[in-house]
Amino acid sequence: xxxxxxxxxxxxxxxxxxxxxxxxxxxxxxxxxxxxxxxxxxxxxxxxxxxxxxxxxxxxxxxxxxxxxxxxxxxxxxxxxxxxxxxxxxxxxxxxxxxxxxxxxxxxxxxxxxxxxxxxxxxxxxxxxxxxxxxxxxxxxxxxxxxxxxxxxxxxxxxxxxxxxxxxxxxxxxxxxxxxxxxxxxxxxxxxxxxxxxxxxxxxxxxxxxxxxxxxxxxxxxxxxxxxxxxxxxxxxxxxxxxxxxxxxxxxxxxxxxxxxxxxxxxxxxxxxxxxxxxxxxxxxxxxxxx
Amino acid sequence: xxxxxxxxxxxxxxxxxxxxxxxxxxxxxxxxxxxxxxxxxxxxxxxxxxxxxxxxxxxxxxxxxxxxxxxxxxxxxxxxxxxxxxxxxxxxxxxxxxxxxxxxxxxxxxxxxxxxxxxxxxxxxxxxxxxxxxxxxxxxxxxxxxxxxxxxxxxxxxxxxxxxxxxxxxxxxxxxxxxxxxxxxxxxxxxxxxxxxxxxxxxxxxxxxxxxxxxxxxxxxxxxxxxxxxxxxxxxxxxxxxxxxxxxxxxxxxxxxxxxxxxxxxxxxxxxxxxxxxxxxxxxxxxxxxxxxxxxxxxxxxxxxxxxxxxxxxxxxxxxxxxxxxxxxxxxxxxxxxxxxxxxxxxxxxxxxxxxxxxxxxxxxxxxxx
Lengths: 291, 370
Ligand SMILES: Nc1ncnc2c1ncn2[C@@H]1O[C@H](COP(=O)(O)OP(=O)(O)OP(=O)(O)O)[C@@H](O)[C@H]1O
Ligand SMILES: [Mg+2]
Description:
The structure holds two protein chains of two kinds.
Chain A: H1 21-48, H2 52-57, H3 70-78, H4 81-112, H5 118-130, H6 133-146, H7 153-178, H8 181-189, H9 194-205, H10 207-223, H11 226-231, H12 240-250, H13 255-276
Helix pairs in contact in A: 1-13, 3-13, 4-7, 4-10, 4-12, 5-7, 7-10, 8-9, 10-13, 12-13
Chain B: E1 4-13, E2 16-26, E3 31-35, H1 42-50, E4 57-62, E5 65-66, E6 77-80, H2 92-102, H3 107-121, H4 136-148, E7 154-158, H5 166-183, E8 186-190, H6 194-200, E9 203-208, E10 211-216, H7 218-223, H8 228-233, E11 240-246, E12 253-255, E13 261-263, E14 266-268, E15 273-278, E16 284-285, E17 291-300, E18 304-311, E19 314-321, E20 331-335, E21 342-344, E22 351-352, E23 354-357, H9 358-369
The complex binds adenosine-5'-triphosphate (ATP) and magnesium ion.
Residues 13, 16, 18, 36, 38-44, 192 of chain B line the site of adenosine-5'-triphosphate.
């Protein structure tokens, strides 16, 4: 194998005139699925901008005739979304980066530091991903209650970490294992400590994975309902989904406001997604090794 | 700059012994090449010197320090890996400067040193590129630069050229040699390319299955291989071996199992069965002393022609200058009567010395008569 190959970017290859029928079929499938997914959002978004009278008189997917902003104001006020938004923000912004950092460090240790119990530890972590949290809700409540952490941020963040970290560790250690070991060895010879290797080599080259995990975890945490319901009982501590739930109970007939509330709930998650999706670019490790 | 001393070093992975007690002393500024077939433990030995593998037994010293328990960064070594292992997210300049940064040097100092190194290796125009934007040869150079910039006591190379194409390999071979002369540092270099070993090394260490078969200068190993393994390993094409029985009689000769008789130029100090080893370049076509051989194939390489021919039931290779007219199934007389022929014990495969050339023998017998 020679290292000096002149690779030609794929897009320079002369495109065939006739499209592959399989590709066309795939495209059509993709578009159909996308439409099915987008439809409810369109419905929610349009409805959130209609007055109640218009909701009743127009078709569900018809765009609003005139934009009706008061829905958002009303929902914000009636649902106490200011408070729940702050709670959700604090919880997610602490839990998600912290959890990812812990996972990444644990994954690095499992993948790169020779420990006697490595295999057993990985199995243990894997076991952690297999427990459905619904099973754990009652014992979890007892535990958090025993620690006196009901209705506190710590009381909800700790269980979130406990259930979020294992699968992240599992995914990341698989990814770290695939990083050529010469890369960390070269850095160790160059005088780096494990912390430096982790920070300067592993974190940068795993940005795409970290971004993906961050988005997934953020959306999960932001939308988490069951555990929050059990642990956060004081309405002052509620997160957005709890607030939305309660709002829905009171204002189920005011479609405009209800959908405005839903839009406000999902919007932050979408913004986070849009910010981090650009790190999804793959191929950051290319060029580390022979061509 | 430092000596490296390896004393009875062993390595086992679990119950599998990979290195069975290797000892050697590498002098300050020496260029030592470890060669051997795949899986013989070359990389393992190198990695033990680097501190990337634990040493299961024995002692390794660099300079006057025993380094058995020192982490890699404290051993004052630099290593160039077969796959280069450049930091993908850093530019060439950052790759080169990483170790200096780790050593706590100031920014301007790092910049000067990086620029110096880049100058030596012709990397100056590439300093702001990422590894992905370099060709294989350029990456190789960056990997070497990363080693040079630290000015280590010992350089360790693990098959650094095996991913390059043939031309580039020849060029880099010369550059590494020039670099060694310029820096005067101790180099331990692993390869399984015997041409690299012959052309670059001050001393070659031939390994097989975790033990040293022989070490010495390239020409020592070429001229006096201690056993058939070393003889086979160095030189291209590989040495011819013919097994037969020594003829009793005035003229030294080997009788092959099929009855063919091979004239020898010297008399080995042995009786009965032996193995004769002659390099393909020393086999000649000789109607007087030659043994008839049936040509199997001829391979013109341009300047030379390689003839593979069958003597008795063994295929031998003969390199002759120029072109040959004969083709497959023609019979040619091949002579192995060269003073530099080697003899080996067929059982132990160890070298058997020759008592001297026929001329010497003749002279000696004449003296005895007088
Ligand atoms: N981590 C390991 N666990 C068990 N055996 C190993 C391990 N690493 C290497 N070995 C074994 O040790 C032996 C020597 O390996 P090494 O990599 O040193 O060979 P090498 O001489 O460098 O070969 P090559 O020319 O193919 O690079 C091989 O038989 C290999 O299977
Ligand atoms: Mg190797």
